[in-house]
Automatic annotation (TrEMBL):
Gene3D superfamilies: Aspartate Aminotransferase, domain 1, Type I PLP-dependent aspartate aminotransferase-like (Major domain). GO terms for molecular function: pyridoxal phosphate binding; transaminase activity. Pfam families: DegT_DnrJ_EryC1. InterPro entries: DegT/StrS_aminotransferase (IPR000653), PyrdxlP-dep_Trfase (IPR015424), PyrdxlP-dep_Trfase_major (IPR015421), PyrdxlP-dep_Trfase_small (IPR015422). Belongs to the DegT/DnrJ/EryC1 family. Signal peptide: none annotated. The keyword Ribosomal protein does not apply. This is dTDP-4-amino-4,6-dideoxygalactose transaminase. It comes from Parafrankia irregularis. Keywords: Pyridoxal phosphate.
Amino acid sequence: MTTVDRIPFVDLAAAHHAVADEVAAGFAQVLATTSFIGGAPVTEFEREFAAFSGRQHCVGVGNGTDAIELALRALGVGTRPDDEVILPANSFIATAEAVSRAGARPVLVDADETYQLVDPARVAEAITARTRAVIPVHLFGQLAALEQVQEVIGGREIAIVEDAAQAQGATRDGAGIGSAGPAATSFYPGKNLGAYGDAGAALTDDADLATTMRAISCHGSLTKYEHTHLGFNSRLDTLQAVVLRAKLRRLAEANEARRTAAARYDLLLSDAEKSLGIDLGRPQVAPGNVHVWHLYVIRVPERDRVLGRLQAAGIGAGVHYPQPIHRTVPFADHAPRPCPVTDLLAGQILSLPIYPEITDAQQQRVVETLMKALVDNDS
């Protein structure tokens, strides 16, 4: 098999090519000034990403997991020994890890089957007097039903912290990430807005909360050697800020290219469903949402066998996530009620390659190979 035959899950080389000259010039400037921590690139990126997201403040940090912990700690979550935070079991384990690191107990609830996002009805069932926050994860590139979560919370003093690691540029009813409470996002290289290493950010419209988050992320200090909070060290690296600024200028266009690719998959898979007489569980966009298609996730029978066939053919498909959080060792006792939808999804979901540069021919080959795998049980 030649390199041309291979279709990567995400094409980081193509993404780098688009910004290579700008990044090289920015790196040269940082090296010349030796401003390796903080400095103009970080400040400018924070301002630009806040504006892009429709928020007032952005605090750059070391990674997305830190960003969630930072937001929770700034809100005072975890200060009591019995604090609980509700989050979906259908998410990456980092969401639960951040809650535990903040000093609270993750309470895992089921997803809805249509959109695979946190089910507000399950959130309602899980709320107790110990609940301090809810984290509605914006999975795969679209926002969770924030207004329904807010309705469930009602007048209780329960914060919302949005896990927006997969939703940079997504909106719901015209509002971007962070409209219901502080949002945490990740700039891991494979994200829609990806750095050249680990990086993340927290967003908010609350100036005081932003100040607290910034202090906590820098050893509890806004002024050198004056420590007002118990903090830790999680800062956005200056070189990563250079990369992120270059990519941010192209993010809206890249997200639109992802939407085009998703629409192309919809058409191709619709034809495949009619031909094969099966339902491939194509992803659905919730009303009011503008999806940014970080992942394109379908549902197939005999998922692991089909995945193996795709990978053997050089197609970089994946699974997000094969092991729900409540099935992991650290959080096996953190789901007070069964999560049947999440368990069902874990055995069926299959993520197809999607990125701004994917071509029509590549997508056609993905779907053709998928169809062959579905009808041919001969491994």
